[in-house]
Write a structure and sequence with these properties.
This protein is globular. The protein has a domain at 43-238: Alpha-Beta Barrel (TIM Barrel). It has 16 helices and ten strands. Helix 7 crosses helix 8 (147-164) and helix 8 (147-164) runs parallel beside helix 9 (185-202). The protein is α/β, with parallel strands linked by helices.
Length: 387
Amino acid sequence: MHLRLISLAALVAFGLSATAQNQVAQAAAPDRAEGLRTAFARAQHLKRGINASGWFAQHAGDYSAAWTDKYTDSQDIALIAKMGFDNVRLSVDATPLEGWPHGADGLNSEFLARLDKAVDTMLADGLAVTIDIHPESAYKLRVKTTDDGVDRFVMLWRRLAAHYAGRDPERVFFEIMNEPEVSDAYRWAGIQARVAAAIREVAPRQTIIATGPNYSDIVDLLKMHPLEDGNVIYNFHFYDPHEFTHQGAGWGAAWWTYEHGIPYPATESSMAELVKQVPDLVNRYQLENYWLDHWDGHRIRLLMDEGAAWGKVNGVPLICNEFGVFRDHADPASRNAWIKDVRTALEADGIGWSMWDYRGNFGVVVKPDGQAAQPDAGTAAALGLGK
């Protein structure tokens, strides 16, 4: 057991004397301080990132080689590096990792071999990689509601961390879980601390990425207390206001599907007819509040400042590893204006970022199946790439 993971309350429970407690605490403090120095230094590898989703996660259970070999390939990884990104957040579904055929480590050896190839290709192209456990809702629900679900999740991470412990700790990061959807902040804190301890047992050098409860919004970050482990970076996601970023989306609030061409920033004149897209009066009222709330770059910066202040108060490094706009029904100029405002606000606060997403309907590239990816020049410019 690592000293940095032992709280003073736990030491009391172990029956140690006050003198012994002080000795242990003094020994642990430099260890945590060294971990913090490591985490801050490594956060510099996560300044300009992109998410790689729909590849080893978010694909309705089809993670065959026929899918993963074509959806994102070595040419895509080379393009990510060429565009100016320095890291990739690689989403990995928990279920196929636990599936058969099992290797000696208890993980799916066939799936893991393909995941290894993706990770190693990114490293070879000079990119840092965040291995992000990105489960489906049913898996999250078991973790949220059952002890067995937590036990299985801890076991999964112990095995996965051991597998990747030999990779370059400067550039391979372990993100505990994407948007845990555990609304009880105290339960999630306990789960996260337990997983972090399991990772640290088998991967003492790697940097862990931790998150707040629920959907990892800024407000969820503010509910957190940092882990005892110093070698941790803390993340949050930003999609506000959803009325704009998720317009036309078929998940979340049902009325978002009615929205098309919602501008950013919005004015009364630009929204006068657009609010009528939403037939229900209650939902129309909600959409009307989007422009009444005066969403613009200044408001976004003030919200980012709140997250940055939490990091400073707690003395820990931060990243924002998801933000983006559903592009199918958004005006491209408005979409890029929002992306630029978010990106510049994060950079002004010294917070690294990873945009959602590489390809797909939030993408920085357009890649029809069977064709080479084409970067969206407007979105790349909004991200400050290619300067």
